[in-house]
Design goal:
By secondary structure, the chain is an alpha/beta fold. About 45% of the residues lie in helices and about 15% in strands. The chain has 31 helices and 22 strands. It is globular and about 85 Å long. It binds adenosine-5'-diphosphate and zinc ion.
């Protein structure tokens, strides 16, 4: 069998999927072709399959380096559930256990063996490696080799040493979700990967809904979020251990089923509470950022940040733990003004790493402050939050995603023009020689010795904002900085300067608006676009899954993901053949669990007298498109719209508030197939959509744009005829999705 058939065969037989997700196939092909490969993809994109499928095809064994015991345990269990032979080696095992695994491995018992980097260069493992046919060395969470990342692990640097010691060189595949160029460079150089194939996938996670709320009462806001996600799992991240304890205790007092996790607890307590969450015994985890790495739990429906995290890297990583199964999920920051100070304090007083010199330490401090600032911007901007995130990671996107708190327009604004004028003139009067704190003191009319001695109390701007809170002034300043009206110098003690542009404000030529409070969204419920008509069946399937999980002492999501259960409800499989068509069902899972689920479906069908199954067996896409088609007549077109805007208009006309992205994906899929659109790689190697060969017939045109760094990209628009064209084509689009 050739590689092509083989990889698709394995995808279905072992993993239960019929199509690859973006990037998976390219990576698998590169690895199978013997090329060292680095895959950079966001959490939940499906990195594991990228090395697991080649590992199954290769003749020899694959060594997977993984940083955490819990992570490797989870992955190995999932592999075994899929009928794949794998094992792990780590410090939780006895000498005899390790010997046994290595013995089995040397006889070709496993296709994959997971190992911590610390074990890699140990005598036993080295000995084993010298005498075994190793086809591939895989490095998971590869950003751990980089000092620039947040998870630097010195032992990761020994991987290169291990590789060099091998008598022949297996192909290397490395994976991470960290996208910055620094980290990428570090991975390639430290592993000495020559001419690697680097795949960077788009960083968007379209099933995640982002928002920032600024509630007066954070706890009340939190309980609202939990209530509207009743019965679902979620993580609540807090900035300090103390906050974790407080929030945890209040949740418990109020009758919620919560667990907690932070570094101040004993190992046993932490482990128990982590298990409570993973095994669905408790549905809310309150934790510091110590919790999460290595948690593969796929059915997390919301991630709330009770305190703003310290940078966008941490935020996207932590928020990304929601919705790994592809189901809709929300990521919310409960932003409070003291969060900035808390993070500044942590940066200034954090643990001292004695291994670095003063100069580097200062560099890192400055970098952290800068990152913190960009995190604050995220909490105060009025534009699309998704766009801000993607841009931060170097990706261009539309101005409007239709699925974040700002695109929903769920906020209130304040006119800050006058206050901005006061701040800018104060900076100018103080001769652009002072930093944030001094300027705030002057504006608030501080009587401090320093201000008086400097004679700053003589300025005309002295005390002109004495009725305003320090945090508010700071926020306006940050907004001005974000908008490019003021900036901090790059000195050791940064001073505030004004830019040329600030004149617009002083002259009153420009009005400035800043986001203030975020309205609560409890009336908006995330609706699952797969349209759970079969809610009762879903509950029953979940119950069966829970029982199996308890019996097997395995987390429920390792048995089947929520996405698989949803698909069972959509397809109603009545026999083994139909059950195999369910997403996530491979041969092994059919054999192990098929009968229980098939029986439940058949019961459900007979109890509910479901006879005509053609409707029910329709795919989620077709159903979504039918709804759109029904609403098409009511949609008002615009002179010019992006596809997302059009889809938002359609969804609104259909009376729904979610599902925009999914509809967009369906429509663009069809447009691509008909050459109205085409795909190409942009300057970053990210696949983007462009107007296709037949674009004119479909009223599609594009506009060329230039980014800040001179990079060129294109925005695709639909004119009025184009929007009509799509609205009139739903019959064709539905036919298309019925047959793929
Ligand atoms: P990552 O390691 O990138 O965070 P995982 O490898 O854990 O992501 O995959 C996330 C989820 O996506 C898993 O539940 C996995 O089974 C599922 N998945 C991966 N590839 C596919 C695919 N081609 N089709 C459908 N689901 C997939
Ligand atoms: Zn948005």
């Amino acid at each position: 069998m050739n590689n092509y058939n083989q990889k698709y065969g394995i995808l279905k037989e072992y993993f239960g999927y019929t199509t690859f997700r973006g990037g998976q196939e390219q990576i698998i092909d590169a690895v199978l072709g013997g090329r060292n490969t680095l895959g950079i993809m966001p959490t939940g994109a499906g990195k594991s399959i990228c090395f697991q499928i080649p590992a199954l095809i290769f003749k020899g064994i694959t060594i997977v380096v993984s940083p955490l015991i819990s992570l490797m345990k989870d992955q190995v269990e999932a592999l075994i559930q899929n009928g794949i032979k794998a094992a792990y080696i780590n410090s939780s095992m006895s000498y005899a256990q390790i010997q046994k695994v290595l013995y089995n491995a040397s006889y070709g018992m496993y296709k994959m063996i997971y190992v911590t980097p610390e074990r890699l260069c140990g005598d036993e493992f080295m000995n084993f490696s010298m005498n075994t046919d190793i086809s591939m060395l895989t490095i998971d969470e590869a950003h751990c080799v980089s000092q620039w990342g947040n998870d630097f692990r010195p032992s990761y640097l020994r991987i290169a040493e291990y590789y060099k010691a091998l008598p022949y060189k297996p192909v290397i595949s490395a994976f991470t979700a960290t996208a910055t160029d620094e980290v990428k460079g570090d991975i390639i150089s430290s592993l000495e990967m020559k001419d690697p194939f680097v795949f960077t996938s788009g960083f968007d996670r379209s099933n995640l809904y982002f928002s920032v709320e600024k509630p007066d009462d954070k706890f009340a806001a939190l309980t609202n979020i939990i209530k509207r996600n009743a019965g679902k799992c979620g993580i609540v991240y807090c900035g300090t251990r103390k906050n974790v304890d407080e929030v945890y205790e209040r949740l418990c007092e109020n009758g919620f089923s919560a667990a907690r996790y932070h570094a101040g607890m004993t190992d046993d307590d932490r482990k128990n509470s982590q298990n409570d969450f993973i095994y669905d015994r408790k549905n809310i985890m309150v934790a510091t950022n110590a919790f999460g790495m290595g948690i593969d739990k796929s059915n997390v429906s919301f991630v709330v940040h009770y305190n703003m995290p310290k940078d966008m890297e941490s935020y996207y990583q932590e928020a990304g733990r929601a919705g790994r199964d592809g189901e809709p999920a929300e990521c919310i920051i409960l932003y409070g003004k003291s969060d900035v100070r808390l993070n500044q304090y942590i940066i200034e007083n954090g643990e001292r790493n004695e291994e670095i010199d003063d100069f580097t330490r200062e560099e890192i401090r400055r970098r952290d402050m800068d990152r913190l600032k960009k995190m604050t911007f995220y909490c105060t901007i009025t534009g699309c939050l998704r766009r801000y995130i993607l841009k931060y990671f170097g990706e261009e996107s539309e101005n409007y995603c239709g699925s974040c708190g700002n695109c929903d327009g769920n906020y209130e604004t304040a006119d800050i023009t006058v206050d901005s004028q006061k701040i800018i003139s104060c900076i100018i009067r103080a001769k652009q020689r002072f930093g944030v704190n001094v300027i705030i003191s002057v504006l608030r009319g501080s009587r401090s010795e320093r201000i008086i001695n400097l004679g700053l109390d003589k300025l005309t701007t002295y005390g002109i904002m004495k009725d305003k809170h320090t945090d508010y002034i700071r926020e306006v300043m940050e907004h001005l900085e974000y908008k490019g009206y003021i900036f901090s110098s790059k000195d050791k003690y940064p001073v505030l300067k004004v830019s040329e542009k600030s004149r617009e404000i002083l002259k009153g030529e420009k009005t400035l608006i800043m986001k203030t409070v975020h309205k609560e969204r409890d009336e908006i419920k995330p609706v699952n676009i797969t349209n759970r008509e079969h809610d009762r069946l879903y509950d029953e399937l979940r119950r069966i899954r829970t029982n199996i999980a308890l019996e097997q002492r395995m987390p429920a999501y390792i048995i089947f993901s929520d996405a698989s259960l949803s698909d069972m409800c959509a397809r109603l499989p009545r026999n083994e053949k139909e059950f195999l068509e369910v997403s996530g069902v491979g041969e092994r899972k059919l054999e192990l669990y098929g009968k229980y689920f098939i029986e439940a479906v058949n019961n459900y069908i007979s109890v509910n007298n479901i006879s005509d199954r053609t409707e029910e067996s329709e795919s989620a896409e077709v159903r979504l498109l039918r709804e759109a088609a029904e609403a098409a007549g009511k949609v008002k077109t615009e002179e010019k719209a992006t596809i997302t805007q059009l889809c938002r208009n359609i969804t609104e006309a259909a009376g729904k508030d979610r599902g925009i992205n999914k509809l967009r994906d369906c429509i663009t899929g069809w447009l691509l197939n008909n050459e109205y659109l085409r795909e190409e790689k942009n300057y970053r190697g990210v696949t983007v959509k462009r107007a296709g060969r037949l674009c004119e017939q479909a009223g599609i045109f594009e506009e060329k744009r230039e980014g800040a760094a001179g990079q060129i990209y294109y925005n695709v628009y639909y004119n009025e005829a184009g929007q009509r064209f799509i609205l009139d084509s739903f019959d064709l689009i539905i036919e298309y999705y019925k047959h793929i």
